[in-house]
Design brief:
alpha+beta, six-stranded mixed beta sheet, Archaeosine Trna-guanine Transglycosylase, Chain: A, domain 4, eleven-stranded mixed beta sheet, 422 residues, elongated
Length: 422
């Protein structure tokens, strides 16, 4: 399925909202700091009662004479007894520039349906499934619209684990949990490379991206860096980088590399997909040929690491996190150490020593998300590591192998400031 087909399907399922704005409100949004790209709007509750989060919204000016805008609905919430607020993001101007021209692009029956909704007196309405699909299909046929529509699809594709976008988003969320912040934390600063898709974009609602020159130590991640976000809390700083050599839709997987400069422990978590295992309750992973090369890469790095200077419950650096392909981000997962996985492979009855990982087969013998986060946060697992060339080489090896990277570095602000000043 192409991104266009997927976006059309989403539009039909969640239905496109049509919002007609008076000239004064339209002009106010247009002249605001971020214009139609990101803004919020409050309307009477009955007018937005059918509008849902993560649906699309088509904005037209009541009096005409202005371009059409399409945007993603990020949230819908009651703000007063009588009003509901709708927050939108990724707004983009689309062709054709006139609603009547868009109506003419649809077949007669669907065009008449859209026209009747435009002519209704209510400021907001939700269009039918067929009209919603036809609008998105027609707009995507114009190459001038595709960049904006593709970005909306990029944001929508982060809800389930069936894409690298969602895996990268989950990795960022895991890094924030280890650092002690929730997934909704807002970055102090942010940078997104203009020519690349990075899930760092999902954090930019309230932050204006900084220039690349303001990003500290971007060279650590190399030329494949696509985004950067910085967080602070309790005197500490978390620097999060995303990097990928291939476009997100062509990636093989995602790795999270977490380096705690205070405790000198490094952990790499590689995401793997679980597929249905013939029942509604069990999911399994069956290794492919690429896994052998990935394991070899992990073992090669582990051999170069010096012994830990402080206590570790397990000094191993590499862990594998298995997630259900069609489940939502943040849902249940299985995490095992690489040595545990290899032990399972050695004991497998499969002649090629291929092992099936599943909830039932492991019988509860794996790390849960909360336990994994606590062990990393406390410095109880992970190899001894410094912020050095080895860290950069590990990132380069991961991206060269076709995976995306989320690299997170936790440090004391005073120590980081001294290092940045050198």
């Amino acid at each position: 399925m192409t991104w266009v087909d997927d976006l059309v399907e989403i539009a039909g399922k969640r239905r496109v909202a049509l919002v007609k704005l008076p000239a004064d409100i339209w002009d106010g949004i247009e002249s605001s700091e971020r214009g139609f790209v990101f803004f919020s709007l409050a309307l009477p509750q009955e007018q937005l009662q059918d509008v849902t989060k993560r649906s699309l919204c088509l904005f037209v000016r009541e009096t005409g004479g202005a371009a059409i805008h399409l945007a993603l609905v990020r949230s819908v919430s009651k703000v007063t007894t009588l009003q509901t607020r709708m927050r939108v993001a990724a707004g983009t101007q689309v062709n054709p520039s006139d609603i009547n021209k868009l109506i003419a692009m649809l077949d007669v029956r669907l065009g008449n349906q859209l026209r009747s909704e435009v002519e209704r007196r209510t400021p907001a309405t939700v269009l039918s499934k067929k009209v919603s699909e036809a609008i998105v299909r027609s707009l995507s046929g114009d190459t001038a619209n595709q960049k904006g529509l593709k970005h909306i699809h990029f944001l929508l594709s982060a809800s389930k684990f069936n894409s690298a976008v969602a895996l990268q988003l989950d990795a960022i969320g895991t890094a924030l949990e280890i650092f002690g912040l929730g997934g909704g934390a807002k970055p102090k600063s942010l940078y997104v490379r203009k020519d690349a898709d990075s899930t760092i974009r999902l954090l930019e609602d309230s932050v204006v991206a900084h220039d690349a020159r303001s990003v500290p130590d971007m060279s650590l991640v190399g030329s494949d860096a696509t985004g950067y976000a910085e967080f602070e809390g309790d005197g500490d700083r978390l620097r999060v980088y995303t990097a990928n050599k291939l476009p997100l839709e062509r990636l093989f997987g995602v790795d999270l590399i977490y380096l705690n400069q205070k405790l000198k422990n490094l952990v790499l978590i590689q995401y793997k997909m679980l597929e249905p295992n013939g029942s509604k309750t069990d999911w399994s992973y069956r290794p492919d040929a690429q896994l052998d090369a990935e394991v070899e890469r992990m073992e090669r790095f582990q051999r170069t690491v010096t012994s830990t200077a402080s206590y570790r419950l397990n000094p191993e650096a590499f862990y594998m996190k298995f997630v259900k392909r069609t489940s939502g981000v943040g849902s249940g997962s299985i995490t095992v150490a690489l040595s545990h996985f290899k032990g399972l492979a050695r004991s497998s009855d499969n002649p090629e020593k291929r092992v099936s990982i599943s909830f039932n087969a492991l019988n509860g013998h794996y790390l849960r998300e909360a336990g994994l986060i606590d062990l990393i946060k406390g410095g109880y697992i992970g190899c001894h590591a410094e912020l050095s060339e080895g860290f950069t080489e590990l990132i380069t090896a991961v991206t060269s192998g076709g995976n995306a990277v989320v690299a997170a570095i936790e440090e004391r602000i005073s120590e980081a400031s001294t290092a940045d000043a050198k």
